[in-house]
Structure formats: C-alpha cells, structure tokens
From TrEMBL, chain A:
CDD domains: TM_PBP1_transp_TpRbsC_like (cd06580). The keyword Transmembrane applies. One of its GO terms (molecular function) is transmembrane transporter activity. This is Branched-chain amino acid transport system / permease component. It is a multi-pass membrane protein. The keyword Kinase does not apply. Its main location: membrane. It comes from Boseongicola aestuarii. It comes from the Bacteria. Keywords: Cell membrane, Membrane, Transmembrane, Transmembrane helix. It is found in: Cell membrane. GO terms for cellular component: plasma membrane. The chain crosses the membrane at residues 12-32, 52-73, 85-107, 113-135, 142-162, 168-190, 197-215, 254-271, 301-324, 336-359, 380-400.
From TrEMBL, chain B:
SUPFAM superfamilies: Periplasmic binding protein-like I. It is a lipid-anchor. The keyword Secreted does not apply. PANTHER family: ABC TRANSPORTER GUANOSINE-BINDING PROTEIN NUPN (PTHR34296:SF2), TRANSCRIPTIONAL ACTIVATOR PROTEIN MED (PTHR34296). It is found in: Cell membrane. Keywords: Cell membrane, Lipoprotein, Membrane, Signal. One of its GO terms (cellular component) is plasma membrane. The keyword Amino-acid biosynthesis does not apply. This is Membrane lipoprotein TmpC. InterPro entries: BMP_lipoprotein, Peripla_BP_I, PnrA-like.
Length: 413, 342
C-alpha cells in the first residue's frame, strides 16, 4: 500500500517538475525576445501620504531570472522527487510565471499596481462571502445551491430598505432576509427532506423572478425606492498610510473588512469551539452525532440560517457596497463562483477567502491586460480567471474532500 | 463570457412574470422583445420601449413586451408573440438578429422590425433600424478631448459587437480629430481602432463591473469615461458621484442619462443619444397606416436619430469656443465635409 502511494506521489512530483521546466523554457523562448525595455508599475496614487517611487523592472533580465528559477525548481522536483515541497514549488512557480507574464505585457508601458491589487480585493468580496455561506451550510451537510438567490435577495433588500431608511438599516435588513431564505432552505431540506439541489434552484428562481418583477414594475415608477446610499471606504488611521499595503488592505469599505473578519470568525467557530465541533460532526456522521445527543436538525437549521445571513451580507455589497441601486440579475452568477471558491478552498473559510482572492486578482489582471493592448483577444483574457483557478486547484490544492454526509438528508430513527 | 450565465435557467419564470397581461381588445397591438439587461435598464431597452409607450399615448394602441433574461430566450420570446396577434413585433438588439430572421422567414405575413440590425439581403417583412452613432460619438470624443485635464480619456464596452463598438469608433476618431486640429496628444484608453480590441465587461447585467472598469480607467489617469454597456454604465456613474466630477466625468449612451438616471445626473458631461424611441414610434405609426415596408431605417445626426445631449449642469464648464467648434463639426458631418469613418 505505502509503496504504491509513494510511487504515485513520485510520479506526481515528476510531472510537477516537468511542467515547471517547460514553463521556464516557454517563458524564455516566447517572452524574452519582445521584452527589451523596462516595465513600470506605479505603486502610489496621487493622494498618498508617503509617495513611493515607481517600481521599474528591466524586462529581459527579469524574464531570464524567472525562467532560470523555474527551471531550477522544476529540475529539483524532477531529480529529487521532493514530494513535500511539490505543492509549494508549483505555487511559487506559477506566481513568478504570472509576474513574468505581467512584466512582458507591461514592457515599455506602465500601470497602477496598487490600483489593481485594491480592485482584486473589492472584486473578491461577493465571491468570498458566497463561498463562506457555502462552507457554513455544507459543513452541516446541506448543499446550498441557493447562494446566488440569497445574494440577489440581499442586494435587492439592501437597495430597497437602504433607500427608505438608510444604509445601516438596509444592511441589517439584507442580512435578515438572507437569513430568512437560509431558514426556508433548511426547512425544505431538513424538515421536508426535499432534494437539496432542487430546493436551492427553487430559491434562485423564486428570488430572480420576484426581484425582476418588482424592479421592472415598481422601481420604474417609484425611483426613490431604488436610490440607496453607498458605504464609503473607511481609512484605518496610520495603517492606511503604509505604502502599497495601506491603500490595498486598510482603505476599503466595511464589506471588505467584513469578509476578512467573517472568514476569521467562521474558522474560529468551526475549528475551535464546541459548537463548531458539533456542527462538523453533524456534517460528517449525523447518526453518530445524534447518538451522542447532538440535535442534528437544530444544528442544521441554525448553521444554514447563519449561512443565509452571510450570503445576505454579501448580497448587500452589490447595492450598498458598490453601485447604490438594484438592477435585474445584477449578481451575475457570483454565487455560483462562490460555491466554486468553497470547493477550491477545501470547505475551509480561509481557503474559500483565498480562492476568492485568486478570482479577484485574475479578474482585475484581465482588466489591466486589456488596457495594455497585449496581442491576446479580450475574450481569452476574460477566461483568465477561470483558467487560473483550474490550474491552481488542480496543481496546488490537490484533491479536496467534502464533508462525508454532504447532500444527504438525515432521518432520525 | 466572463460571468457564468446563471440566469439562463430562469428564463421561463422571467417570461411568465414579465408578460404584461393584455386588457381589452385594441385595434392595433405592438409587441416588443427586449435584449438582456431588463426593460428598466435606464438606457437601451428602456429607450426602445419608450417608443412603444409614446405610440400607446399618441395613437391609443396596445403595447406588450417580453424581457429576455438570457440569449437563449430570444427565439422562445419571439415565437410566443407570433401566436399573440401582434400587428408588429419589434425586437431590440443586435444579438436578436438571427432569431428575428428565422422567425420572419417562417412567418412572411408578420411584420417585424429590429433595432440595431441590417440584413443583407433585405427580408421583405423586416424593417431594420440602425443608427450612425459614430457621428454623435465623434462629437463626444472631440468634446472629451477638449475637456480632459489629464489628457487621458477612457471607454469600455459591454460586448465586442458592432452596435457597441460603433460608439467607441466615433469616440476615438473624435479625439484624434481634436489631436490633429490642436496638435495635442490626448490618449484614449479602452479601445484600439486597428486591432479592434479593448476593454469589455462581456455582459450587460453586472452593474458593479461598471464601477470596477471605471475605477480601472481612473487609476490609469482617465478623467472622462464613456461606458457603452447599457445599465452597467450606471455603476460607473456611482463611482464618479463618489470621486466628485472634478475627478471623473461620465458620458452617457442611448438615452440622455441626465433625465433617466436622475439620482446621479450631475456626473454626466453629456450623452450620445440614439433615439430608438423616435424610430420605434415612427415604425409603429407607418405600420398602423398600412405603410409598413421591409428595408432599412438609418438614424443620423441629420434626421435626429442620433445626437449629442445638452451639457445641463456642466454647461458652464464647457468653454464657448469648444461649443462653437462642436456646432461647426456637427454641420460639417451633416453636409459631408467631415468624415467620421476615416
């Protein structure tokens, strides 16, 4: 058994090594010839307290260094079969390969690197919160396809209540409505043992139909109902003045901070509290949990409702955290990408957050590349976030395991 | 596609909810199928629907619409109207071109009219409504070049299709015209005339894309942005509202957004209007009189089908010299002495 495992692992390591070497060679062959000149990355914005000089990278030299590094990493993997470092090598390798690509695309031009990083965080918010909602409900074995609908419901409620009673009220209402849909999902799948996929799709359809109807029939007539205030960025004193890191991490609106705080809280709850342990037990082996006196039904109800509230908060980002008005179908499938982030993050809150950040980074990278006029069609650039995710997941994350009882209804005997 | 088109699944329910139930029998019924983005998008679909509403008010006809929430809805929506006793079916959007052609060929007695599509060869029962939006966008580009303080202006589109890029073409040419006339070097980010590539959201739904894309252009120095993406541009307006108009101004498209996006009207420098309401109303009127004919109706600066909206609140910011030059350009484009296509 262990010999077989070792062999499989060794083969995987060899493949990783070969991929890294190939990447290094490709970069040297294709990128280096066009990279005469230097790439300029702007690190500070006009209003920064401590302006930082631009980061100027000599194109050719940088690409050759990256290429050599990749070949070295690959050769090391290949020769020594260092399985322990396989994921790390691939991760580092991909990161520097992306950097080389960026330098190649930017040679002779410039763009705002801090702006791009800040946008990455902003764009990751709804995906991270959607993913977090997924983690919370799937950890108690309830598959939550309805996240997209919960996001949309949060966005709609945020706009409506926010217009009438102000941003804070809108935010609370969005969280509450998200919770209601979480409760409805729990009732359908726990109490009535409806198929979990169908229950989730039902929520998506219901919310889309209802909000589209009200948006086109009511918001059209009464425009004041769809004009919510937007939460502005909150500068954290001192920290926001740090060059590069400051504007990226410490000058964002409360949804960005909220996503980070919630990911931390969820991690603490699931892995460091008694309640979290019980919740995970319900997700892995509900019968055993029940035998030990854990109320399986109640645990699922509570967790799925909280998941709905998280999704409602994420939904409010679209209206109260971004554009201040609701429009039909404005969540644009981010709930489903959130589910993908959950899987890529291995059903771990921090994992889901990191996966969402990869999506956000790829998304803002694609926007910059479109401005840099790389000879790559925009449709291909638009695919970049998804291709990046597939590579990262397949290579770095490896096989992920869902909670054992995921998707299965529990019948108490 | 950038975003997963999740809403495809939802088409059936949206059709059911969006169908405006008809009341008593009317002598004439005009039906409309929208593109994605919703009837209330403050721009494209809404402007075309206003043409039907105007006709309802002026001629006492009945009007109905079906919303497409996904590209898979087009055919189903058109077909469901064919049985619905429509005297004319107006389909709104370039992307409905194939579905409209198929339906028109299958139902040769049913008059159709499509916004933003010209068929070659012409189909006898389809009247295409197209717009020389590049004429108006040319003026907007010249205006933006004259107004920018950073010497950088930006644009982004919804999808890389002709009715979208024609705005961007005209805009870039207008800026180039300014550069040539004033020996200036104003740069346009987001659209490249030669390789026809640029910045696209690849959807007409995600308003937060509008904000993110405008932020991207602003970070690269643009202080005037032209979003050509229907409701997505409303997200850009929110950013301009937050930053302040001295930092970022927006140029609207399709309708005069000063009037349709009243909450943030102060951020619009102007709008490139595409009077789909006027042409849709004209088509309905002609059909009522029995004068419907297949072919092509082209909206231009000359016939008022396209135009540059007033500057409204920003009127005081635009120098009088620039206004005079814009008027001269407008006259020149109409009489043909200035070409917007080369």
């Amino acid at each position: 058994m262990s010999v077989l495992l070792d062999k499989a692992r060794q083969r995987q390591t060899r493949i990783t090594g070969a991929v890294l070497i190939a990447l290094g060679v490709l970069i040297a062959v294709f990128f280096a010839p066009d990279a005469a000149g230097s790439a300029t990355f702007r690190l500070s914005r006009p209003n920064d307290v401590w302006p930082v000089p631009n980061l100027v990278v000599p194109g050719g030299a940088f690409i050759y260094v990256v290429s050599a590094l990749l070949v070295f990493l690959g050769a090391r993997q290949f020769a020594r079969g260092a399985a322990r470092w396989s994921s790390l090598s691939l991760g580092v390798g991909l990161a520097i390969a992306v950097a080389a690509f960026l330098v190649w695309a930017t040679v002779g031009k410039s763009f705002s690197l801090s702006g791009m990083l800040q946008a990455s965080l902003v764009r990751a918010v709804p995906i991270a919160l959607g993913g977090l909602a997924g983690v919370l409900s799937e950890r108690v074995a309830v598959v939550n396809i309805g996240i997209e609908g919960m996001l949309l419901a949060g966005a709609f409620t945020g706009a409506l209540v926010g217009s009438l009673a102000g941003g804070v009220a809108g935010l609370l209402a969005a969280v509450a409505v998200g919770g209601v849909f979480g409760f409805v999902l729990a009732a359908l799948v726990v109490t009535y043992r409806m198929d979990q996929i169908i229950a989730g799709v039902f929520i998506n359809l219901f919310v889309l139909g209802l909000t589209s109807y009200i948006s086109s029939q009511v918001f059209q007539e009464y425009r004041a109902l769809n004009n919510a205030p937007v939460f502005r960025a909150i500068e954290i004193p001192f920290l926001s003045d740090i060059p590069v890191i400051g504007p990226v991490f410490f000058n964002q609106n409360l949804f960005v901070y909220g996503a980070f705080i919630l990911a931390g809280l969820a991690t603490y709850y699931l892995f460091h509290t008694r309640l979290g342990l019980r919740a995970r037990a319900v997700g892995e082996h509900p019968r055993a949990a029940d035998t030990l006196g854990i109320n399986v039904y109640r645990t699922r109800f509570v967790n799925v409702t909280v998941a709905g509230m998280v999704a409602g908060f994420g939904g409010a980002w679209f209206t109260l955290g971004s554009v201040g008005r609701f429009d039909e179908g404005m969540t644009g499938g981010r709930g489903f990408i959130g589910l993908a982030a959950m899987i890529f993050g291995r059903w771990h809150p921090v994992g889901a957050l990191l996966a969402a950040l990869v999506f956000g980074f790829a998304d803002s990278l694609q926007q910059k590349l479109a401005l840099l006029r790389t000879p790559i069609p925009s449709e291909f650039l638009a695919m970049a976030p998804y291709i990046a995710t597939i590579i990262v997941v397949a290579g770095v994350v490896g096989r992920a395991r869902a909670p054992a009882a995921d998707g299965k209804p529990y019948v108490k005997e | 596609m950038k975003a997963i088109r999740s809403n495809r699944v939802f088409s059936a329910i949206a059709v059911a909810t969006a169908l405006v139930v008809g009341g008593p029998a009317f002598a004439f019924t005009a039906c409309q199928v929208t593109d994605t983005g919703g009837i209330d998008d403050n721009s494209f679909n809404q402007t075309a629907w206003k043409g039907v509403q105007d006709a309802i008010e002026d001629f006492g006809i009945e009007g109905r619409f079906l919303e497409s929430t996904a590209e898979t809805d087009y055919e189903a929506n058109i077909n469901s109207l064919i049985d619905g006793a429509c005297d004319i079916i107006v389909t709104v959007g370039f992307l409905l071109g194939d579905a409209t052609r198929d339906a028109a060929l299958a139902n040769p007695d049913q008059p159709f009219s499509i916004v933003d599509f010209a068929y070659d060869p012409e189909i006898p029962n389809v009247l295409g409504q197209v717009y020389a939006t590049d004429q108006a966008a040319f003026l907007a580009g010249y205006l933006a070049a004259g107004m920018t303080e950073t010497k950088i202006v930006g644009t982004f589109g919804g999808i890389n299709i002709p009715p979208v890029t024609i705005f961007m073409d005209g805009f870039v040419k207008g800026v180039e015209h300014w550069n040539a006339a004033k020996d200036d070097a104003v740069e346009v980010l987001g659209w490249n005339l030669e390789d026809r590539e640029g910045l696209f959201t690849n959807n007409f739904d995600n308003l937060d894309d509008g904000r993110a894309f405008a932020q991207n252009l602003y970070d690269e120095g643009a202080d005037i942005v032209l979003p050509v993406a229907g409701p997505v541009g409303l997200g850009s307006a929110t950013l301009a509202d937050e930053l302040g108009i001295d930092q970022l101004k927006i140029i609207g498209v399709d309708a005069d957004l000063y009037f349709t996006d009243t909450e943030r009207q102060h951020v619009y420098l102007t709008s490139i209007t595409k009077r789909m309401d006027a042409t849709v109303r004209a088509v309905i009127e002609a059909t009522m009189k029995g004068e419907f004919e297949g072919g092509l109706l082209v909206g231009t600066l000359e016939n008022g089908g396209v135009g540059l909206a007033p500057f409204h609140d920003m009127d005081g910011l635009v120098p009088d010299d620039l206004k005079a030059e814009l008027e001269a350009l407008r006259v020149g484009i109409i009489d043909g002495s200035i070409s917007v296509s080369d």
